[in-house]
Design goal:
Layout (H helix, E strand, L loop, with lengths): L1 H18 L2 E14 L4 H6 L12 E14 L2 E14 L2 H11 L9 E23 L3 E26 L5 E11 L17 E15 L2 E33 L5 E18 L4 E9 L4 E9 L2 E11 L3 E8 L4 E8 L2 E7 L9 E11 L1
Antiparallel strand pairs: 1-2, 1-16, 2-3, 3-4, 4-5, 5-6, 5-7, 6-8, 7-8, 8-9, 8-10, 10-11, 11-12, 12-13, 13-14, 14-15, 15-16
Length: about 350
Amino acid sequence: MKKRLIYISILFALSTIKSYATTSVEAFVTSHSFSNILPIKQLIEDDWQQAPDQSASDAFTQNEVGLRTYFDNFSLSLSHRYDYFVEANGDTARAFYLDRSDLALDSQSEYHAKLKLFHQRSNGIKVGYKLNFDRFSTELRVGYWRLLATRESQLNGLISSDLNGKISADAQLSEFYTTNNFLKRKNSDDWQTQGSGITVDLHMRWQPSNNIDIRVDITDLYSDYKLDNAGFSAGKIDTDGTFINSVGGIAYVPLYRGIETTARYDFTLPETVNLDAVYRTDNLAYLTHFTRQGDINFYYVGVQFESEYSTTRLLFDIENTAPEIQFHNKWITAYFSLDDTDIAQAMLAKLGVNVHFQF
């Protein structure tokens, strides 16, 4: 009797383990980059080969690589992410281009500089739980991140040049940082180089009928990162420090008047919203797609081809005139988009690969 009870207990334990056994494992890479300031490659490499458009305002790149496993309705992810955002205006982009190209500023113009740089790099773990109903499913993922590096710099002011090429600047600077900063301030263990963060993602799917399929994915629906003591600088930059150099020419040294200290730094990440709507007919499926990353919107239309083993989507970004192709089958999900056949001139680039194994 005792052996039978032990045997039953073992069977119960094995059935419990089986019910929570890994059902799938995924390896994924996602990257989405966009710029209306300069081609992405030139912006990343700080190699300004062409003049920016006067309407220049935004650029970003968001990237993540990791592993995810599902235990029935539970999910566990380990990943590394890198986010970089630039906000500027036409005057700022033009002044940067002239400076990087060793060209003189227009002496008849006054440049209203407005620049914000933000980036963060972190490793994280996410835990999720998925609820399945008849025609509706939802998954919530909560992430804890170890912040490895961050910087948020803001520069606002006026830049001008006289007929002799002497540059005058009067600007306000403020920035939080763990490593790189405008003033090239060195860290002698004065401030923290790492922090922590929390994020929440939401994924939903609704099929109101056999012909309609709606998906919503919101990344960074909630986020909160913090460093108790980040590097911090705030003050005024001007060009009052003019002098006559060794060859008799007029030169200048930008002067900074302000503080260099430490301060608590809290920041949030711009949320990313993806909305899919698919309508199926007897022969074809039509779809619309909307993406919002931060303050930038992307609108797509396309068609979807379905077979017994795979699904292929062909989409078109209306505003940026960029095609996108998506493919999904039992083993892989992938997408790719580029707005120019010459990758060096691309202003939009998207790549995503998810390789998944089911057990």
